[in-house]
Amino acid sequence: xxxxFRPSQxxxxxxxxxxLKAVDNVIAKVQASxxxxxxxVRYPPSLLAPEMPARDKYTVFSRYGRNYRMGxxxxxxWTKVTSRVNPKGF
Length: 90
Description:
This protein has three helices and two strands; from the N terminus they run H-H-H-E-E. The chain is mainly alpha-helical and 90 residues long. It has one domain. A two-stranded antiparallel sheet has the order 1-2. Keywords: Ribonucleoprotein, Ribosomal protein. GO terms for molecular function: structural constituent of ribosome.
């Protein structure tokens, strides 16, 4: 969207928070139903949105970025891939 109604970074950050909360709810419901999938087996159970530090919610590891971090909004298809697990030390 362009013009006066263009979303700001603050508004987009709020949308990310709601999306993380919705993803956590869906994963909890699927696990409670007893369905076993490979993606659920690989999903780390301790990484819920309220337990994650803000640095990991809004940035991801990047070997080319300054301080090895870049904003999550710069990741292609960031709404479709999990970015909750970073390399050790980052």
